[in-house]
Amino acid sequence: MEKSVKSRREFLKAIGLAAAAIALPGCESKPGKRPNILFIMSDDHAAQAISCYGSKMNKTPNIDRIANEGMRFDTCFCTNSICTPSRATVLTGKYSHKNGCLTLSDRFDGAQQTFPKLLQEAGYYTAVVGKWHLKTEPTGFDYYNVLPGQGLYFNPRMKEKGKGWQGGRRGGEVYEGYVTDVITDIALDVLKERPPGKPFCLLYHHKAPHDEWEYDPKHEELYNEFAIPEPETLYDDYSNRGEAIRRVTQKIGMRHTKFEEETRHLKGWVRKAQQYQIYMKKYLRCVESIDANIGRVLDYLDESGLAEDTIVIYTSDQGFFLGEHGLYDKRFMYEESLRVPFVVRYPGQIKVGGVNDDIVVNVDFAETLLDYAGAAIPKDMQGRSIRPLLRGRTPKDWPKSMYYRYWMHGAHFNVAAHFGVRTKRYKLIYYYGKPLNARGAKKRETPPEWELFDLQKDPLEMSNVYGDRAYKRVVKKLKAELVRLRREFEDDGDGIDIS
């Protein structure tokens, strides 16, 4: 293990010096000191499992520290709640249909424009460590060391820049230890060995808490002394909802492999209750390791004098169901899957302890980082910088709605493809009932259907009021907004009629 660490450090020093040597003077778009960027992203970490978002299940003091010393966003959403598409959106500042990653089976085109490439051109040292999940070799990074595919929780293989990309899941070098610790060790090495005199952008990406929720053995006893509080909708019977949620199989209490062995002898609500406890304790133990390791990195920023000049962001690639509506996993446009945690710290530049409730989406992340770096934001990016919001000012023309689309019709858990619009008060979802991509070409069509939720009166999304005459004008207005958004983002060429 010592040998692999030593060689990694030597390699980092080499590429750091090379990057510094080729950096061109005057490459900044704006004068003045530019911030370092530490972008931390986990996989499937729901806001409900973060204490600064009001979790009643666990404590996350280090993620909370970012929020308490910066700003927390309460209505930040993903535009396609599945891993590969979400990560492609973050990199490109474009929706799935524009960046080419609509589904898990799509391969990211590394030749396209990304914000790390633009930061490189602006003189930044760029690196990505941990979860990648885009199938193709990372581009736009001076250094990378990433998991092949989903990666393993224990003794993971990692693919390092300069050591060959091929080899599939068996490629790369084995690192002994628990994956969250390993990723953090490498990230800290990157920070320590980065080239001097250059701002850096480090994408520090965790595998956890993705299923199968394999936690560090040292947390084996964590949460054993009490029962995890159940969500109000755990025993949802799906009355007054559409057929889409009735058909899915990502339900706690069903006979499936994730919890089958421990609960095979149980039935009904007792089985569901027990599966929920097993699921949540595994999940939260994974989160415990994430938070502790983030603390290690924040401490290093303090000790090295970098904290004052570094933007720190914590987010997740999508939301996740933690028993709400009796579900686990993501994909749906329901709040728990749609909403992502998003906290930002930048000392002296962001109001301490600020809370924002403007609509923000992950397509905005790239533009925001480019803005702070003083780099030009390309016109073909589809989001906008949230820098004014971080200053406590909401522009008059800030979006009042957001567009969502999930493409993988019936591919996993029998979740139907759908798109929709969410405003501050309402959410309109259309399950259009047919596969529109090669991956799902053999999947059967399902009857199209609509769901409308009044989030002010029904924040738990328990009552579909689409057919309620009292909401007739609301439906008309939201459909018009959905048409407008699809046209604006150029996702209206599929022939789907939503009249």
Low-pLDDT runs of 5+ residues are: 1-31
- Biggest sheet: strand arrangement: 7-6-5-4-8-1-9-10-2-11
What amount of the residues lies in strands? 5-15%
The residue fraction in helices comes out at: 25-40%
Helix count equals 13
**Helix and strand succession?**
HEHEEHHHEEEEHEHHHEHEEEHHEEEEH
Distance between the termini: 62 Å
Structural class: alpha/beta
How is the biggest beta sheet arranged? 10 strands, mixed
Stated plainly, the CATH topology of the largest domain is called: Alkaline Phosphatase, subunit A
Please provide the count of β strands.
16
CATH architecture of the largest domain: 3-Layer(aba) Sandwich
How many structural domains? 2
**What's the overall average pLDDT, rounded?**
91
- CATH homology group of the largest domain: Alkaline Phosphatase, subunit A
| Overall body shape | globular
Q: Can you tell me the CATH class of the largest domain?
A: Alpha Beta
**For the CA atoms, what is the radius of gyration?**
22 Å
**Looking at the chains present, what oligomeric state does this protein adopt?**
single chain
What's the structural blueprint in terms of helices and strands?
Elements: H1 2-22, E1 36-42, H2 61-68, E2 71-73, E3 76-77, H3 83-92, H4 96-99, H5 115-121, E4 125-130, E5 143-146, E6 157-160, E7 173-174, H6 179-193, E8 200-205, H7 243-247, H8 260-263, H9 268-303, E9 310-316, H10 335-338, E10 342-345, E11 354-356, E12 360-361, H11 365-373, H12 387-390, E13 401-406, E14 418-423, E15 426-431, E16 449-454, H13 472-488
Parallel strand pairs: 1-8, 1-9, 2-11, 3-12, 4-5, 4-8
Antiparallel strand pairs: 2-10, 5-6, 6-7, 9-10, 13-14, 14-15, 15-16
Helix pairs in contact: 6-9
